[in-house]
Amino acid sequence: MKRIFLLSLFLILPLISTAQMHEVGVFLGGSNSIGDIGSRKFINTKSPAFGLVYKYNITTRYSFRGSFSYSKIENRNFFTNDLNRFLTFLSATNQILEFSGGIEFNFFDFNLHDQDLDFSPYVYLGLNYFQYDLFYTDQNSPLSPVKYSDDLEFAIPLVIGAKAKLSEQFVLSFEVGARYTFTDNLDGSNPVNEFENNPNLKHGALYNNDWYMFTGLTLSFTFGRLPCYCKEK
């Protein structure tokens, strides 16, 4: 994980050195998963999450955005009001190491030139590439999941939030982000490779892909040469 983190910084630093106006921020919040174990609520944070966010502001409405995030997601069947799930003792814990890139769109003009306090809701769309653990749970031993490898997969993020400019240098954001993954195995319910043909290791709604959520705050520091948002006459 440390090597991946250092590689991400190495790739981002050249962008920071040449950008006109950029933001670098720290994300702190919580995470949860939606799959075949535990609650189906989309906002139901169970574990801390943290990350680094970089934005290159193109106009007052659009920004290129990249991020690196980490969280240990967990869910247990006694977290849910679904009786069928509650009657089992299955639990799942996984580690998500996520890279994301895309475009952030502000609903209102968010002009870093202004001295006044600016506020705007926003959405973020892009593509995620994340690392996670591969494990299985034998239903005869539900309290002893077995990790056998890790894997890399894609996810589609849909993030909604709101941000306010605290000063000329600092921006505070709150957001809720859903990630639709291209795997049904975040909770070990559908093992792959040498375990995929063992029905005793499968459970839940097979081939119904999992989701995970990040919810929290980002405090960004803005710096660099201010871009010109002037309209041509």
In short:
With 233 residues, this protein is mainly β. The chain contains 2 helices and 8 strands.
Globally, the shape reads: elongated
How many helical stretches? Answer: 2
Low-confidence stretches: 9-20
Give the strand line-up of the largest sheet: 1-2-3-4-5-6-7-8
Rg computed from alpha carbons, rounded to a whole number of angstroms: 20 Å
What is the CATH first-level class name? Mainly Beta
Q: How confident overall, as mean pLDDT? A: 81
Estimate nothing, just give the exact number of structural domains. 1
Helix content: under 10%
Can you describe this structure?
With 233 residues, the chain is mainly beta. It has one domain: Beta Barrel (Porin). The protein is 9% helix and 51% strand. It contains 2 helices and 8 strands, in the order αβββαβββββ. It has helices spanning 2-18, 83-86; strands at residues 22-34, 47-57, 62-76, 91-106, 119-136, 146-165, 170-181, 211-223. It has an 8-stranded antiparallel β-barrel with strand order 1-2-3-4-5-6-7-8. β2 (47-57) and β3 form a beta hairpin. The longest helix is centred in the first third of the chain and has 17 residues, at 2-18. It is elongated. The protein starts with a helix and ends in a 10-residue tail after the last strand. The model is unreliable at 9-20 (pLDDT under 50).
